[in-house]
């Protein structure tokens, strides 16, 4: 594929690195930039095209870097600006793009902007954040809740007003209605774009604008006991406001100043709202992250519905994308089980749209149990016992069977999975049929098969546990058949038309088999069949 032109983010495969947990180079138990640099050959050999780094900027780490105190620096924990420049250079020399995390919704409370803003009611930066008088009862200005527990408003003693924070009190929200805030963040973007970064993944982009009148949010009538408390109210007035699209378009204009870069938005919304983030005339985000696979029921039928709905709702010309895991959600191998994780891999890499992999999913990493005294995630600390903790999906990458899995020579900041001596890159590389080699084979096939990247998507059937769809492009058609169950299934070709050559099975043992009349799948098996076009339905 052409990696130099405008379409690299359409053709390519994205890979999220959570820097604290990828590779430690200085024996402090926390991953860092030099560590990532050392592991670039692995990423290049895996065949991914772009690496998105979760935040590496100076931060008090109340939310592990999503609380930034300097947007244009590097936290010493991760290294220096020199290390970063070296990483970008080395990545580009290996044909890899680097995408940074931009966190414009909120800063750290220690950011100099907030220090100024809170210092007095008439400070010039007062309106850079969201300050309101107390409500009529002297309490918070309205009923909005923090995603990490409690009111989203914290009273500041010095001035007697409340400031808004969608997340921790240590993460005050910026006021995106203020032109100076927009300009300041645009300058931050230009700073990194000038350094050669290839784009941004924008944190909680759908949160950026709040209701101008700060109306109370309505109750969530479907709230269930045992769910996190912030779900008791909807976010009707605190997120996804119409004016946000203007903000997104403003960011896109900045990336456009620099040519072929990508703007990705983190957005948890139903598909019909999500697709609005492509913007008017596609002038918004090129990749509003599609998280539908993260929360759907894992069945042939519900996945076919999601894919069909999404394909139907995409605005003309909009490019789709799919995500299977990230640093906020339980690992896919734990959500759906080890066997189905291989089906998920084949699904992700054969759907139409840019795939984003989460580090470690390619070696089948599962959720790691975190003992109460090991909890680091502020969400779990504030709202304990409901299973919201995100530490279990952020544990160190398992490189080899040496102590600390080759991640660090010191005790890692989070515990390692107990099975790392078997489940690691080195041992899975040696096992010809491992999940890692499945990922490698899928990535290779995707790269050499334009039908998998550019081809149309046509649903064929979702019967019981079997999902069938076709990808087709210029004289080449592929049928993908996935078994979502543990029992064998078979389907006859006559009505559907998939006689042809089997290119890949998730078990990596059927390549070259010729399919005539009947396609049989073992339990938890998925296959890709190349169908001569005259026989494709
Ligand atoms: C979304 C990030 O992915 C998550 O890790 C973080 O806690 C919140 N935004 C707040 O920044
Ligand atoms: Mg380190």
Description:
By secondary structure, the protein is of the alpha/beta class. It folds into three domains: 8-107 and 178-443, TIM Barrel, CATH 3.20.20.80; 112-164, Oligo-1,6-glucosidase, domain 2; 455-535, Golgi alpha-mannosidase II (Immunoglobulin-like, Sandwich). The protein is built from 16 helices and 19 strands. It has helices spanning 8-11, 33-38, 40-46, 81-93, 112-119, 179-194, 244-256, 271-274, 292-295, 300-313, 332-336, 338-350, 378-382, 425-430, 435-448, 450-454, and strands spanning 14-17, 50-53, 97-102, 131-132, 153-155, 162-164, 199-202, 262-265, 287-288, 321-323, 354-358, 456-463, 466-473, 476-483, 489-492, 500-505, 514-515, 518-521, 526-531. The protein has an eight-stranded parallel sheet with strand order 9-8-7-3-2-1-11-10. The protein has a six-stranded antiparallel sheet with strand order 12-13-14-19-16-17. Strand 7, helix 7 and strand 8 form a beta-alpha-beta unit. Helix 6 (179-194) packs parallel to helix 7 (244-256) and helix 12 runs parallel beside helix 15. The longest helix is centred in the middle third of the chain and has 16 residues, at 179-194. The radius of gyration is 24 Å and the shape is globular. 49% of the residues are buried. The chain binds 1-deoxynojirimycin and magnesium ion. Residues 63, 66, 103, 167, 203-204, 266, 327-328 line the site of 1-deoxynojirimycin.
């Amino acid at each position: 594929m052409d990696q130099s032109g405008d379409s690299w983010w359409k053709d390519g495969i994205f890979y999220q690195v959570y820097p604290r947990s990828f590779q430690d180079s200085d024996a402090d138990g926390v991953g860092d930039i030099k560590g990532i640099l050392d592991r670039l050959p692995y990423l290049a050999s895996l065949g991914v095209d772009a690496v998105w780094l979760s935040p590496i900027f100076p931060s008090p780490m109340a939310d592990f870097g999503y609380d930034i105190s300097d947007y244009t620096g590097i936290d010493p924990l991760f290294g220096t600006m020199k290390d970063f420049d070296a990483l970008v250079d080395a990545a580009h020399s290996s044909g890899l793009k680097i995408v940074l995390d931009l966190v414009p919704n909120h800063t750290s409370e220690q950011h100099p902007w907030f220090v100024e803003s809170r210092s007095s009611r008439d400070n010039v930066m007062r309106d850079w954040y969201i300050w309101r008088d107390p409500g009529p009862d002297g309490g918070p200005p309205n009923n909005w809740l923090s995603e990490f527990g409690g009111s989203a408003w914290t009273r500041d003693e010095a001035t007697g007003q409340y400031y808004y924070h969608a997340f921790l009190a240590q993460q005050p929200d910026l006021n995106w209605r203020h032109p100076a805030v927009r300009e300041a963040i645009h300058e931050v973007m230009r700073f990194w774009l000038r350094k050669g970064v290839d784009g941004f993944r924008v944190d909680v982009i759908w949160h950026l604008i709040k209701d101008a009148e700060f109306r109370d949010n309505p109750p969530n009538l479907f709230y269930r006991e045992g769910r996190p408390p912030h779900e008791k109210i909807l976010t009707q007035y605190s997120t996804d406001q119409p004016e946000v699209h203007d903000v997104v378009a403003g960011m896109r204009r900045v990336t456009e100043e620099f040519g072929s870069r990508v703007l990705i938005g983190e957005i948890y919304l139903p598909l019909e709202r999500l697709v609005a983030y492509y913007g008017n005339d596609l002038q918004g985000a090129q990749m509003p992250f599609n998280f539908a696979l993260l929360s759907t029921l894992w069945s042939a039928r519900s996945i076919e519905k999601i894919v069909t709905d999404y394909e139907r709702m995409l605005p003309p010309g909009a490019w789709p994308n799919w995500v299977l895991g990230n640093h906020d959600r339980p690992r896919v191998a734990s959500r759906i089980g080890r066997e189905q994780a291989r089906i998920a891999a084949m699904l992700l890499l054969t759907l139409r749209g840019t795939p984003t992999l989460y580090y470690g999913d390619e070696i089948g990493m599962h959720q790691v149990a975190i003992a109460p005294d090991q909890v680091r995630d502020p969400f779990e600390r504030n709202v304990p016992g409901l299973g919201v903790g995100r530490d279990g999906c952020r544990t160190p990458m398992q490189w080899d069977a040496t102590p600390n899995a080759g991640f660090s020579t010191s005790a890692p900041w989070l515990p390692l999975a107990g099975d790392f001596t078997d489940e690691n890159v080195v041992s899975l590389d040696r096992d010809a049929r491992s999940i890692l080699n499945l990922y490698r084979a899928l990535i290779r096939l995707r790269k050499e098969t334009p039908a998998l990247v550019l081809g149309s998507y046509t649903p064929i059937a979702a019967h019981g546990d079997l999902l069938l769809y076709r990808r087709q492009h210029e004289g080449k058609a592929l049928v993908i058949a996935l078994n979502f169950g543990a029992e064998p299934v078979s389907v006859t070709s006559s009505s559907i038309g998939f006689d042809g050559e089997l290119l890949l099975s998730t078990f990596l043992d059927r390549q070259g088999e010729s399919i005539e009349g009947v396609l049989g799948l073992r339990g938890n098996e998925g296959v890709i069949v190349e169908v001569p076009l005259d026989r494709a339905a």
